[in-house]
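Field guide to reading this record: the first block holds the primary sequence, the second block holds the structure written as discrete tokens, and the final block holds curator observations. Each block starts with its own label. This record concerns 3-methyl-2-oxobutanoate hydroxymethyltransferase, catalogued under organism Zhihengliuella alba.

BLOCK 1 — SEQUENCE
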Amino acid sequence: PAKVRIHHLARAKEEGRKFTMLTAYDALMAEVFDAAGIDTLLVGDSAANNMMGHATTLPITVDEMLVFSRSVAAGAQRALVVCDLPFGSYEESVEQAVRTGVRFMKEGGAHAVKIEGGAYYADHVRALVNAGVPVIAHIGFTPQSEHALGGYRVQGRGDAATALIDDARALEAAGAFCVLMEMVPAEVAAEVDAALDVPTIGIGAGSATTGQVLVWQDMLGLRRGRLPRFVKQYADLRSVVHDAATAYREDVVSGAFPAQGQSF
Ligand code: KIV
Ligand code: NA
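BLOCK 2 — STRUCTURE
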């Protein structure tokens, strides 16, 4: 199948079609999602939480992200691979942002990057795009600013809606090919989508966005604990894996595994 390109995502919005994104951090899951027709794979800095066990996305480094990015790029055939610029890898200057973005394209095999932040980062986005690095802008709730925002909270409510729309417009004008919104009221996300020519992606942002994204460990029920309200769980992988590991342990202890068929 033909590779997904950024112009295909633009066309989806023009033609009123939806597209999909899932996070991926390794080659095998990337391969499975790609074969299932998921259009875009996000090497999210949520790898800090879901792969490395950190409490927030803040600690993950560029070098760590590069390992996940390379792995996903190796597993993807059709999907567009987007990699997050992690906390501390772009904020200082447009030069720092370009340097990091280029590394993800050159060493990480990414096809695009995602950067958190509003209109303030328009210059960073413009410089990345000029360097040949396609950019998704991430607005609304931005997990790298969890402490600045005072925890996981819906953004863009009430008067803040205007600022969110202004941010989205500035980032589009700077050359972002897509704007991702996290935890934004559905009607505000719809307004942002209507204000932009470029496609939008939502997570906890209602159904008006062009695309939707979920973290795979949430979507497949691997993660323990209470899920955010915006997650729909499509499988219970935690039980599947737990039960399989238990059956294996019992077989080894009882001597049922390995049997003759598994022996030489
Ligand atoms: O890192 C991530 O998984 C993300 C998505 C939640 C959009 O940025
Ligand atoms: Na992220």
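BLOCK 3 — OBSERVATIONS
The first strand starts at residue 19 and ends at 23.
The radius of gyration is 20 Å.
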